[in-house]
Amino acid sequence: MDDHRLSELITAADLPPADTDAAIAELGAAAVAEALLSEISARTRLLPEPIEKTTVQLDLGFDDKRLHYLFTLGAGTCEVEAGRAPRPPATYRQDLSELLRAVFSPGRHDGTRELVIADSTEPHGLAADDPWLRQRRSAVLAAHQLVEAISRRFTDLTELAVRFDADKWGGHWYTPHYQHYLEPLRDRRVKVLEIGVGGYDDPNLGGASLRMWKHYFWRGRIYGLDIYPKTGITEPRLRTVQGDQGDAEFLAGFAREHGPFDVVIDDGSHFSEHVLTSFTQLFPHVRPGGRYIIEDTQSSYWPGWGGSTDLDSTTTSMGFVKKLLDGLNHQEQIRPADHAASATELTVTGVHVHHNVVVLDKGVNTEQGPPSWVPRTEDPRLWYAGES
């Protein structure tokens, strides 16, 4: 299922039941089931599994039809195929429309769910190594892994960063900040863009933080932009695009095609020139209420990276951030009449600076300032003295 249709499917999870069913019928029940099973498969890899390979029979209902799949888990395996087993160790039944909501909509959705663990057909022993008890234990673990993959939300960014070996935690310590600023967006159908995929010129390496974002923003669409082709990284809800973050024309076209975005993370070259170009072209395409994040701002102080030892320089990434701080208070500044507030000043509503990472809030920065009668160019103590 392509990105557009997958986005339609995620949207359908929030619709009234009749509209959800209509969307499934339009997309095709089998295509919907396969898209959901692909998402579930990706999630199962984050969860404890049985020691032995164990098959769970999935029986999904839509209209008067049943769709049957075999989900094999355990021993490092996650395989899905259409079909039925004569006597599966575990069986999972649910209406397809409710499974869609369970995977992609907030809340609990298990009204039509049935779970069955196969009983023994004859008496069995009680020893821990009894074959049937061992099989039953594996079946219980596989069923639990499947249910957790369907309904669990992965809410701890640090845990996900460690799981995927992303450098957002360990060396850098960014995930607590990300958790703080991005948690309000976690359950939304967001679009997230990260500049810099990692792995240099190997098309199959990198993408650790993209996978972290995919599982944190469990209803989101994740884009990775890199100067090298990253064809081996793409998977459902996660795609990569090749491009140069220093190319303003490319960025503008990319943003028009794929935006608007809810979150943009610049973890690219870290050259100040590229950081400023990326912000100029991409920030206008961040939705109100979104976040624009610049990582590894230490390079702002390093001349070899386009930075400067001059702390008052306005051409470095941190110099630019300092200017944004002044822009927050554009209404209070004394300016010539023809010096109107810039689009950036009117839309940056917050600047949060932490060690080597900056988080910018997007919104409407038009809060009224003090009334006009409050003195600007005179010493207010003299003004008050004149009033007494």
Automatic annotation (TrEMBL):
Pathway where it operates: Antibiotic biosynthesis
The UniProt record lists the keyword Ligase: no
Keywords assigned: Antibiotic biosynthesis, Methyltransferase, S-adenosyl-L-methionine, Transferase
Keyword tRNA processing: no
InterPro entries assigned to the protein according to its UniProt record, in alphabetical order: MycE_N, SAM-dependent_MTases_sf
Start and end residues of each Methyltransferase MycE N-terminal domain: 7-109
Gene Ontology BP terms: antibiotic biosynthetic process; methylation
GO MF annotation list: methyltransferase activity
Name of this chain's protein: Methyltransferase MycE N-terminal domain-containing protein
Organism listed in the record: Embleya scabrispora
Taxonomic lineage of the native organism: Bacteria, Bacillati, Actinomycetota, Actinomycetes, Kitasatosporales
